[in-house]
Amino acid sequence: MYRAVFPASFDPVHYGHMDIARRASLMFDELVIGVYDHANPLKKVLFSLDERLEMVGIALGDVPNLRVEAYSGLTVDFARQAKATIIVRGLRVFSDFELEFRMALANRRLAPDLDVVCLIASEQHMHLASSTIREIASLGGDVSSMVPPHVWQALQGRYAPGATGAQL
Ligand code: ADP
To answer: Which of 10, 92, 120, 136 to mutate to test the pocket of ligand 1 (most atoms within 8 A of CB)?
Structure first.
């Protein structure tokens, strides 16, 4: 039985994350999506943990062997707690590779029993990043081709004139 975790901030979840999650769900018996709870208050997120959990849950609710959980602390501890042996990550561009390579080696040092599987982004989602989506939405741009409808709605609400908590 292969259980994998896919950890990320998902602030917010977008079609690139969903593509990786769906493809990983076909590769492993169970996939646990880990929504990172930033303990550091200086790391500003646009959406609260509960909002991010709900948005990911709706986005991937139709995938039968997938569940969504919050986590904080080390990803390797989350993976072990979930009784997973694999950490799934996505690779978009070359700069992702360098980051993922370093993180995978550090994680391997911390937890030799865990391995990292990187899936190459699908061509049509390669350019997607939550930060870009937040920036475009904050400027009134249409990101409906990048996120599912419920996330697009949440972004519009967050960046509506007079809305609170509308940082990037
Ligand atoms: P983002 O970069 O969108 O803010 P995260 O930093 O939370 O998302 O990324 C978490 C994981 O999801 C990383 O492994 C990242 O490479 C992967 N990922 C993010 N966007 C995409 C995408 N468009 N296609 C494939 N994987 C992605």
So the answer is: 92
